[in-house]
Amino acid sequence: PVLENYNLANNVKGIRFGGNQGDPIFAAADGQVVYAADGLKEYGNLVLVKHIDGYITAYAHNSKMIVKSGENVTAGQKIAEMGSSGTNRTMLEFQVRLEGKPINPANILPTN
Q1: Per-residue three-class SS string for 44-86
Q2: Which of 48, 56, 66, 75 could be 35's S-S partner, Cβ–Cβ 3.0 to 4.6 Å?
């Protein structure tokens, strides 16, 4: 379920999805993992995937990261497991950034 939608006024820079500890997190598109660590405390265990045309997808608050920086991933590949790192509830915060700036994922994701 969607917990919160993109809303920069409320500092929600992506879409927050609910789920259960350990639920699989999948890459939205083919790309290369450019970050898989916990150095940004507000995002907990964070995976960043760089895609073509300047897009980066972010997957935050994971309990476990399956991929490492430098790995290539394909759309639908399991890259992490849902958790609550850096937050007080189990969720995935999914962000899309274009040229470094957050954009509403709903504007570019397929509706299915």
Answers
A1: CEEEEEECHHHEEEEEEEEEEECCCCCCEECCCCEEEEEECCC
A2: 48
Parallel, antiparallel or unpaired: strands 31-37 and 72-73:
antiparallel
The pLDDT tens digits for 27-79 are 999 999 999 999 999 999 999 999 998 999 999 999 999 999 999 999 999 99
Which sign does the torsion angle of CA 85, 91, 97, 103 carry? negative
Which pTM was predicted? 0.95
Which of 6-10, 13-17, 106-110 comes out lowest in average pLDDT? Answer: 106-110
Q: How confident is the model at residue 112 (pLDDT cuts 50, 70, 90)?
A: low
Helical (H) or strand (E) element with 4: strand 2-4
Q: Which two tokens stand for residue 64?
A: 């476990």
Q: What is the DSSP letter of 107?
A: G
